[in-house]
Design a protein that fits this description.
This protein has one domain. Helices cover 79% and strands 0% of the residues. It is an all-alpha fold and 66 residues long. The chain contains three helices and no strands.
Length: 66
């Protein structure tokens, strides 16, 4: 019984860690895409504000195009 319980906990933790790793990789790719998008713009306060808003998750151009 104890071994069965430990096995279930180990599988659960393994699955959870894999999901977290995938989420972090997707988030990193999303941030990179946003930065590349703004690299072509002339840098000014409005560009910096828009970039910050998108990196923080408010009004991202990725979410509007889908």
């Amino acid at each position: 019984m104890y071994i069965h319980f430990v096995s279930i906990v180990a599988r659960t933790l393994s699955g959870l860690s894999q999901r977290v790793a995938r989420f972090l990789a997707q988030d990193s790719q999303r941030e990179h895409a946003i930065i590349v998008h703004y690299s072509a713009y002339r840098w000014c306060d409005a560009t910096e504000r828009a970039l910050s808003n998108e990196l923080m998750g408010r009004g991202g151009w990725l979410t509007h195009s889908q």
